[in-house]
């Protein structure tokens, strides 16, 4: 990359290098020097944009969440709502190499959020926005007859997000029984039960 790249381009270059490094080495095993080497730049250049490792890590998790949000916005919103909800949640599943890497990075940051209030706040905000969006989708679904009128949209949205997070965790940690076809099928089964109540499913 040219030595005269603009700051935004440089930051994104470094963010991509951070994601690759974290996915391979984990949070504890990643240094500024590692990220600089992966980005093919000097440590000094990395520090020009991120003075500390913590600043770099916070930018990294915000970058991961922004990429996930961008994927959400590209999902076509068209009935039935059940299919929309499945497509929305699939954007978080590790169904390709990019999302597999993001999952491993996310798991590292999730651990860090236990001891970092700043990272915990970022996670809470992103999760809250996702739950709000799914709540709105389920509320709209009730108005069109999907699913039962007595369903609690927010409680179900919270449960659905936790379910998908669990699929991601087991995919990363265990592998067996949680490969891509299996996690797709599990999400479809969950959605079928959620939206099939009226029909007695």
From TrEMBL:
Report the PROSITE patterns cross-referenced here.
HTH_TETR_2
Signal sequence segment: none
Q: Give every HTH tetR-type domain span.
A: 8-68
Residues within the DNA-binding region(s): 31-50
Query: Keywords, A to Z?
Result: DNA-binding, Repressor, Transcription, Transcription regulation
InterPro entries from the UniProt entry: BetI_C, Homeodomain-like_sf, HTH-type_TetR-like_transc_reg, HTH_TetR, Tet_transcr_reg_TetR-rel_C_sf
Which Gene Ontology molecular-function terms are recorded? DNA-binding transcription factor activity; transcription cis-regulatory region binding
Q: What is this protein called?
A: TetR family transcriptional regulator
